[in-house]
Design a protein that fits this description.
The protein is mainly alpha-helical and about 180 residues long. The protein folds into two domains: about 90 residues, Orthogonal Bundle (Rna Polymerase Sigma Factor, Chain: A), CATH 1.10.1740.10; about 90 residues, Arc Repressor Mutant, subunit A. Helix content is about 75%, strand content about 0%. It contains ten helices and no strands. Helix 1 packs across helix 2, helix 2 crosses helix 3 and helix 9 packs across helix 10. The relative contact order is 0.09.
Length: about 180
């Protein structure tokens, strides 16, 4: 079923919307949650909460891209579960990927306007990356894929992925310094 048809079902509050969403995006949302959580019960909880939040938020929201809408919900729910379970003990890869981006301190970016400007600056930086680097960066820092998973996906060695991410982080740091965020 097409995304627009699924969204129409949500607007009619037709229960079929949930089953169609699960059929089309269940594996996708499970993959996102699994990369962050690792625990099967937590993954199941996050995905079930995703369906509930989608049900409750459509309408009034009308997502332009249903997959992006669901991935954002799944990611946010998964991150909240991690916070509740102590990220360092439960998700070493998750914590490590955030540690790699330690240059971006959340305490120095307290107000909402500055946060939005920072996000816009990072998005501009990512948008200027060559396609493969952009995909590797997003896999690591949005989907929290492990270095090994990224290497398998793109046919790179573990060392190549690490060095690529290192160079991207250094360039991001330079970019943020030029934009006076650091």
């Amino acid at each position: 079923m097409e995304d627009l048809q699924i969204i129409e079902l949500y607007f009619m509050k037709n229960q079929q919307a949930l089953s169609e969403t699960q059929t089309k995006y269940g594996a996708y949302c499970n993959s996102i949650a699994r990369n962050i959580l690792r625990d099967v019960r937590d993954v199941e909880e996050a995905v079930n909460q995703t369906w509930l939040e989608a049900w409750e938020s459509i309408p009034p929201e009308k997502p332009r891209i249903l997959s992006a809408f669901l991935s954002r919900i799944t990611r946010n729910i998964s991150l909240n579960i991690v916070r509740n379970h102590s990220a360092k003990k439960r998700c070493a890869d998750f914590a490590k990927s955030f540690d790699e981006l330690e240059m971006i301190g959340t305490e120095s970016v307290e107000d909402e306007i500055c946060t939005k400007q920072l996000a816009q600056s990072i998005n501009e930086f990512i948008g200027e990356l060559p396609e493969i680097q952009r995909k590797v960066f997003v896999c690591r820092y949005w989907y929290f894929d492990s270095i090994e998973e990224i290497g398998r996906r793109f046919g790179f060695s573990k060392g190549k992925v690490k060095s690529m991410l290192y160079r991207i982080r250094r360039n991001l740091e330079k970019h943020l310094k030029q934009e006076e965020f650091l």
